[in-house]
Write a structure and sequence with these properties.
Alkaline Phosphatase, subunit A; 8-stranded mixed beta sheet; two-stranded antiparallel ribbon; 12 helices
Length: 477
């Protein structure tokens, strides 16, 4: 069943149409008094930036828990066994480039993407590193697991809505298969932060057990006139509330209600969620699991012209500890039992769903206008070891942020390339070091937003959308 979540309060039950509007209104009204958005204005364009404006949509595929670079995108077959691990490296479609042996489909597609092997930062815990990955900013409580806060920096979709508005889609940003649990509670950096709940992306949970959003289909007994009457009543209430004074909570409520009605009105947008409209062979190709169907929904949202889609490929960072029988709950935080978990569960599914997404986008002519970015919050340590304080008894790898890999494809990104490199142990970058802040700038620039643009908060203090720079090397520049 598809479930909607509040970005701050966590999971909730399935919502009826009435509850969708009512709870959305409550969320907007009950927020704290927060900094107000800056006056409307378009960001200063930087058309000379490599890749600027090349993407109509961005898909961020997020590997929650810290995916190991050594078993995936940056294997070290010549390193000592305690570093290289149990898996072999395999050749790819690009001569001289190897991947981990359990990614055969992605290896055959290596001529369609760029691997960045030199991403680096120094935050070593999931909560704050997830915040860094999804906002491009360090959390004030670095290397910690802080809860979401209304003073957080906004996630990318919230920033995009702030500078560009909603556009033709009721929600310009959608989070699929979320929220990201780190490992059991939602991590920070996934909502509107200090912009307010009115800027939260649409958050959709498990898409495997329902093919559409029937709660959003107008019942046959509800004629269009009654819908318009309800909207008229809402406008009257909004006018009255405005006369009470300029209140941030009122503005948030107006934004939530407005987007809810837009979603109810948009049959095209609602149809994007109908996975049952896909042929069975396509759904099978992606995989009939949460991760695969989330990637399929991302493709359908691209076709619906949603600008920014974040797919939490796995919603839990380490759900296997408490739910060993539920493979959908498995995450990349593999302190122990890394090789069994990767070989038997994570890597086969990742190889299936991500390769299907890339092939499908390319085959439909959508990859040229869609930037796909695959990343996690950090990587894993070069040396394998067992850790007594975690479940499982076989070796794994600790958190490691000094170097890890991400993959980019589409929207002008070079095909069949490797950018940057790590040392012989995959421990530190040796060239072209970049950080999550640069990935943030790259995504915004691809969508035609100047990442150095400034907004102001309620006190008139300016802040830039990002502190990074677009990664020109992705485009061969």
């Amino acid at each position: 069943m598809i479930r909607f979540f509040s970005g701050i309060s966590g999971p909730g039950g399935p919502l009826s149409r009435r509850e969708w509007l009512r709870l959305g209104g409550i969320a907007g009204i009950s927020g704290l008094t927060l900094p107000s958005p800056a006056p409307a204005g378009q960001p200063r364009p930087r058309s000379a930036t490599a890749g600027f404006g090349r993407a109509k949509s961005v898909i961020l595929v997020y590997a929650n828990g810290g995916q190991s670079q050594l078993e995936t995108w940056d294997p070290k077959p010549d390193a000592p066994r305690e570093v290289r691990g149990e898996f072999d490296a395999i050749a790819t479609a690009v001569p001289g480039v190897v991947l981990g042996e359990h990614l055969p489909r992605l290896a055959r597609l290596a001529d369609r993407f760029t691997i960045v092997r030199s991403v680096s930062h120094d935050d070593l815990d999931h909560g704050s590193a997830t915040y860094l990955a999804l906002t491009g900013r360090y959390h004030p409580r670095k290397s910690a697991n802080p809860p979401p806060s209304p003073t957080d920096f906004p996630t990318y979709g919230a920033l995009l809505r702030r500078v560009r508005g909603s556009g033709s889609a009721p929600y310009p940003a959608v989070h699929v298969n979320g929220p990201a649990l780190v490992p059991e509670l939602p991590g920070p950096g996934q909502d509107g932060g200090f912009l307010g709940v009115g800027y939260d992306p649409l958050l959709v949970g498990d898409v495997t057990d329902r093919s559409s959003l029937p709660e959003l289909d107008p019942p046959p007994e509800l004629p269009p006139g009654r819908i318009e009457a309800r909207r008229s009543l809402l406008r009257s209430l909004d006018d009255y509330r405005r006369r009470l004074g300029d209140d941030r909570r009122v503005r948030d409520a107006e934004g939530v209600f407005s987007r809810a009605f837009a979603l109810l009105d948009s049959a095209r947008y609602r149809r994007a969620f109908d996975l049952g409209a896909e042929p069975a062979r396509v759904r099978d190709r992606y995989g009939r699991h949460r991760s695969g169907q989330a990637c399929l929904l991302a493709r359908r949202l691209v076709e619906a012209e949603v600008p920014l889609i974040t797919v939490f490929w796995n919603h839990s960072a380490r759900g296997q500890d408490n739910h060993p029988g539920d493979v959908d709950a498995y995450g990349w935080d593999t302190h122990n039992d890394l090789f069994a978990v990767y070989r038997d569960h994570l890597l086969p599914r990742y190889d299936q769903s991500l390769s299907a997404l890339l092939e499908d986008l390319d085959g439909r002519g959508l990859l040229d206008q869609t930037l796909v970015l695959c990343m996690g919050e950090f990587g894993r340590a070069p040396r394998i070891a067992a850790e007594a304080k975690f479940a499982g008894g076989l070796p794994g790898r600790k958190h490691w942020a000094n170097v890890y890999s991400v993959v980019a494809a589409g929207a002008g990104v070079a095909r069949g390339a490797v950018l940057g490199g790590s040392d012989r142990l995959a421990a530190y970058p040796v060239s072209d070091r970049v950080g999550p802040w640069d990935l943030a700038a790259t995504m915004l620039a691809a969508l035609g937003v100047d990442p150095s643009s400034e907004l102001t908060d309620a006190l008139g203090r300016p802040f830039s959308l990002t502190v990074g720079r677009p990664i020109a090397g992705l485009y061969g520049a």
